[in-house]
Design goal:
Helix 7 runs parallel beside helix 9 and helix 8 packs antiparallel against helix 9. The protein has a domain of 101 residues. It has 10 helices and 13 strands. It has 330 residues and is α/β, with parallel strands linked by helices. Strands 1, 2, 3, 4, 5, 6, 11, 12 and 13 form a 9-stranded mixed β-sheet that branches. Strands 7-8 form a two-stranded antiparallel sheet.
């Protein structure tokens, strides 16, 4: 199989300088691309001058993660796309175990490696950890990470298993499948668009895999830190997008109402803590959802599916009330 490793960049000269060397060193079997989202720094010049083997894809605007990758991948012809964040350090032999799964399992349409924390290499990293799932209300969680509780890596997830979603930090996807579902939903802009993508891929009969025999190290939050209200806005709004678009039947409206009540409780918690930016981000997320509601009603006519998407009803209940902190306790 031919492989394209594609790094989406926006004003990330420092990240490219730090992390691109490992990608070039350990990805000899792949074509490596930097897809630039109309940066205003010298990222492109830096890559051109220092990494002549790396190909540049120049997007004309910063369309976020979703549109940026849709544009960048539209002209590539490789069999497997590897969407890699610019703040990821890869390791020797990271590609082969994942690609082998695609070869051996024809139904595999997407996959991720083990994601460890670059800053504390003994632990999993928040964005993806050892493979992702969601509960019935759309709250994402991972093997190795539930909300803010991060597990240490003791080899407990060195397996290869199906998961519900693979992280966009290091997302392997069959190019034919990516095109079949018409790529990312650009209305998401950034955050949780990979969950929506994996949902649609599985609705067509594909399988999403976690491959614990491959590992990478992710900084996380290099583009938007957790403390940034913009990240809160996208996470809360895009979950509502995802549920309305993909959950079949009238039950989705009850799910959305319940989720919005829980969002309100989260907003009050931010308010009491004096984190006013996050409080207003949730308000903004809900109003943005209302404005997009007619558009997503049209999308659900095409995409809503009876796919069994959740293994547990409420990760919020199990985590905060029952005090289940690790994945294996759920």
């Amino acid at each position: 199989m031919t492989i394209a490793v594609v790094i989406l960049n926006w004003n990330g000269r420092a990240l490219l300088e730090q992390f691109l060397p490992s990608v070039v060193k350990y990805s000899s079997e792949a074509n490596v691309y930097v897809a630039d989202n109309a940066s205003t720094d010298d990222s492109v010049v830096f890559v051109t001058n220092n990494f002549p083997s790396v190909k540049i894809i120049q997007n004309q605007e910063n369309g976020g993660y979703a549109r940026g990758y849709n544009q960048a991948l539209s002209t590539l012809t490789e069999d497997i796309f590897v969407l890699l964040n610019s703040d990821v350090e890869v390791t020797d032999g990271w590609l082969e175990p994942v690609i082998s799964v695609f070869v051996d399992e024809p139904k595999t349409v997407a996959a991720q490696p083990k994601i460890l924390d670059f800053k504390d290499r003994s632990k999993f990293e928040y964005a993806g950890a050892a493979g992702g799932f969601i509960d019935s209300l759309g709250y994402p969680y991972c093997r190795g990470r539930i909300f803010q509780t991060i597990e240490a890596d003791h080899g407990q997830y060195n397996d290869v298993i199906p998961v519900f979603w693979a992280t966009g930090a290091s997302l392997f996807i069959r190019s034919s499948s990516f095109r079949e579902v018409q790529g990312f939903d650009e209305d998401f802009f950034a955050h949780q668009e990979e969950i929506d993508l994996c949902w649609r891929l599985q609705a067509l009969g594909g399988t999403v895999m976690y491959v614990g025999t491959s590992k990478v190290y992710h900084v996380g939050g290099a583009t938007l830190e957790d403390s940034n209200p913009t990240k809160t806005f996208y996470n809360f709004r895009n979950t509502l997008f995802m549920l309305l678009k993909n959950v079949k039947g009238p039950k989705v409206y009850g799910l959305i109402v319940l989720r919005m009540i829980l969002d309100a409780l989260a907003g009050l918690q931010f308010l009491f803590k004096g984190q006013f930016g996050h409080f207003f981000a949730i308000l903004k997320a809900h109003f943005s959802f209302y404005s997009f509601f007619p558009r997503f009603l049209k999308k659900r006519k095409k995409h809503a599916t009876s796919l069994d998407y959740s293994k547990i009803k409420s990760v919020v209940w199990r985590y905060f009330i029952l005090k289940k902190r690790n994945f294996n306790e759920l």
